[in-house]
Amino acid sequence: TPFLRSPCTPSHWYLQSELFTRGLLNSPACTCGYQCETVSHYLLHCPTYNAQRSTLHGKLSRLLGHTLDLSVLSDNAKVFLLLRGSSVYSYVVNTKILSITQNA
Fold it and tell me: Would you tell me how many other CB atoms lie within 10 Å of the CB of residue 14?
């Protein structure tokens, strides 16, 4: 299977929502002011990380060319692609996608 078993799974992240769920914080709110810092918010929407997200999209575009249009994917599909890859791509390409995501 071309999908990756990423060690970078959301359950291992220290996002506000996860820390709140574990009783370690009083609120799941993101430091940007959004009501809940989820994986989707962190990777796709948080204004704090706009520069990193732009770098990520640029690197993905160079890697994948015109084979990927993120605008047509749901947020869940985007997060899955960034963390696990896609059956459309080879294991090698999916590994590169994960590496780009982790280093953006």
Answer: 10
